[in-house]
Specification:
Strand content: under 5%
Helix content: over 70%
Shape: globular
Distance between the termini: 44 Å
Largest sheet: none
Number of strands: 0
Order of helices and strands: HHHHHHH
Length: 246
């Protein structure tokens, strides 16, 4: 079996369509458990108080926002190289989800920053690159809507995705490049000395899994919707041509 079999729209729908609702249920359970555990069953942190609990929303949403763009990059490259329409539609489907996650991360970051830094916003490297990523999300979505010819739109948005990936990487690794930024180091790390304490880390992992499951479910659902919308548009165009000939 080849992975390229799923570039067939019908194969994609029949294979992944049944996954959507189970993934939604799994995401719901994980989010209820992770957020409930994190917000109500973990203690306040020394020096941070109860504001530390914003990590159960901020960190997963930022993680998904960045990796959604990386996923869009991969599927856009597949489109440019292999010209598989499902990959272009998957990138388009992921963009609004990534945009919402970016907004959540920016808002929760501001809520965290005000008591910690004394300001709602600071033009430090990670925050600035994340804001630029947000603008790239807006531009990507707007470009899809502005260009009527689907293949041209897919080509142009793929180029935007490649450029925007620079800021996705900076959003993830800016604290390694610019040590003087206000933003604290990574909350998640394979190095146990760097990540948050286990009392916060364990529910954070559950929340992360919930956000990821929700993202996958939404992208699958939206991709299937995009495929069906493209099919309906093609059928309507064919009917119009037949009517014009008649």
């Amino acid at each position: 079996m080849s992975i390229w079999e799923y570039a067939n729209p019908k194969k994609f729908i029949t294979t992944f369509g049944p996954w959507v609702m189970p993934l939604m249920v799994v995401a719901g359970v994980l989010l209820v458990v992770g957020l409930g555990w994190g917000f109500f069953l973990t203690p306040e942190a020394q020096n941070f108080g109860s504001t530390v609990k914003i990590i159960y929303i901020h960190v997963p949403s930022a993680f998904v926002a960045i990796n959604a763009w990386i996923m869009m990059l991969v599927t856009s490259l597949v489109w440019l190289i292999r010209r598989h329409h499902v990959s272009a539609l998957a990138a388009r489907a992921a963009a609004p989800v990534g945009l919402v996650m970016t907004v959540i991360a920016l808002v929760t970051g501001a809520i965290w920053g005000q008591p910690m830094w004394g300001t709602w916003w600071a033009w430090e490297p990670r925050l600035t690159s994340f804001l630029i990523l947000f603008l790239f999300y807006l531009g990507y979505i707007a470009l899809w809507s502005a260009v009527p010819e689907p293949e041209t739109a897919a080509d142009l948005t793929s180029a935007v995705c490649i450029v925007g990936s620079v800021f996705a990487v900076l959003s993830r690794y800016a604290v390694l490049f610019w040590a003087q930024g206000l933003h604290q180091g990574a909350s998640l790390s394979v190095d146990r000395a760097e990540h948050v304490a286990d009392v916060y880390w364990l529910p954070l992992m559950v929340s992360m899994a919930g956000f990821v499951a929700l993202f996958v479910a939404l992208v699958l659902m939206r991709t299937i919707t995009e495929i069906r919308a493209r099919r309906i548009t093609a059928l309507m165009a064919r009917a119009e041509r037949a009517e014009a000939v008649a």
